[in-house]
Design goal:
Layout lengths: L1 H6 L3 E4 L4 H13 L8 H4 L8 E6 L8 E6 L6 H11 L13 H8 L9 E7 L2 H4 L7 H5 L2 E4 L2 E5 L10 H18 L7 E5 L2 E6 L3 H12 L7 E5 L4 E4 L2 E5 L5 E5 L18 H18 L2 H6 L1 H11 L4 H7 L7
Antiparallel strand pairs: 1-6, 2-3, 4-8, 4-9, 5-6, 7-8, 10-11, 11-12
Length: 330
């Protein structure tokens, strides 16, 4: 982490903690805005804290790179960021390509019929949050991305911080504008283009050569925003938590997607967790399977996975009572 902060070029080391300066700038910005004059006490932290950065390893990727997150809770811009995110959220999702959640995307998949030449693929933006051009966003919250790590203070020099309440909203608004410009200037368009923040599901009907040209076109739109591409393998493509598969009749099958690092490890029946938490694990797995998988996948795989889970816990009266509350598969 420390080596990345010093040598990646995305951060600047600060000589001292800028907490007081940033807090003062936030207060001045809020008080200068007459439209929120009645909300001053709700938008200004009385005792602001210095944000801290931490990393979550992406164990499903080679080398387990860190997903760096800045904990801004209690920071000088946190309340203001929450307020702005609430105000801007209605602007997100107005485009047809927007995916709110897996369930809405699955409903759309049910009505899709593929032609033999159609290619399933997905595009993923490389480090979207850290690459959003900051001069296109709101200055006060998005440029005050400072934090501490092991007693040193740093400031982000590009993009927005993952961890701010405002970042997801700004990322979505930016991507909607980006894809609107990219698609309107493209020579050929996909049959389907559906996006969840920085992940896009695509059905391409114009052949591999034109797909490569379209991919190059996307990566020429901005010097900061770059895409990676993943194409179907043996007619299958993972997207979000769904594994999409081609059928011979042109329809699409779907089931729950689990990464290779998934270990099937859950709470033990005799662990000191509340019964409601244990039931919640089983209920979540069953609900997810029912919501995502089609009937064919439920019959062949998911009931087996749920029964395997039940075999992992001890066969007790509590477990029998717990398993009786699971959805029944026919």
């Amino acid at each position: 982490m420390l080596d990345h902060l010093h040598n990646s070029g995305s951060y600047k080391k600060l000589p001292k903690n800028p907490l007081k300066k940033i807090s003062r700038n936030v207060v001045l910005a809020i008080k200068s805005c007459k439209s929120v004059c009645d909300l001053h006490h709700k938008l200004i932290e009385s005792n602001p804290l210095t944000p801290r950065i931490y990393g979550l390893p992406k164990i499903h990727k080679e080398g387990a790179p860190l997903r760096r997150i800045v904990n801004t809770i209690g920071g000088p811009t946190y309340l203001l960021s929450k307020f702005l995110a609430f105000k801007l959220k209605p602007l997100v999702g107005r485009m047809e390509s927007f995916i709110k959640e897996s369930a809405s995307f699955i409903n759309e998949l049910k009505g899709i019929k593929l032609d033999p030449e159609d290619i399933l693929l997905s595009f993923d933006v490389v480090s979207l949050y850290t690459c959003i051009p900051i001069n296109e966003a709101m200055e006060v919250c998005l440029t005050s991305t400072f934090f501490s790590f092991e007693g040193e203070f740093f400031e982000k020099t590009c993009g927005v911080a993952m961890g701010s309440p405002l970042s997801p909203v700004v990322a979505n608004i930016f991507m909607e504008d980006f894809e609107s410009r990219a698609l309107s200037s493209a020579h050929l368009l996909p049959k389907l283009w559906r996006r969840f923040v920085d992940d896009t599901n695509v059905i391409w009907s114009h052949g591999q050569e034109e797909l490569d040209l379209f991919f190059d076109h996307l990566n020429r739109q901005s010097s900061a925003i770059k895409f990676t591409k993943e194409q179907e393998v043996n007619g299958c493509l993972p997207f979000l938590d769904i594994l999409i598969s081609k059928n011979f009749d042109g329809s699409l099958s779907r089931k729950v997607f689990q990464k290779k690092t998934h270990m099937e490890q859950y709470l033990h029946a005799n662990s000191h967790h509340f019964p409601a938490q244990k039931l919640g694990v089983l209920n979540t797995l069953a609900t997810r399977a029912l919501r995502i998988s089609d009937e064919k996948a439920l019959r062949k795989r998911n009931p087996t996975s749920l029964m395997f889970l039940l075999r992992m816990v001890m066969a007790s009266t509590w477990v029998r009572k717990l398993s009786s509350k699971l959805p029944k598969f026919h």
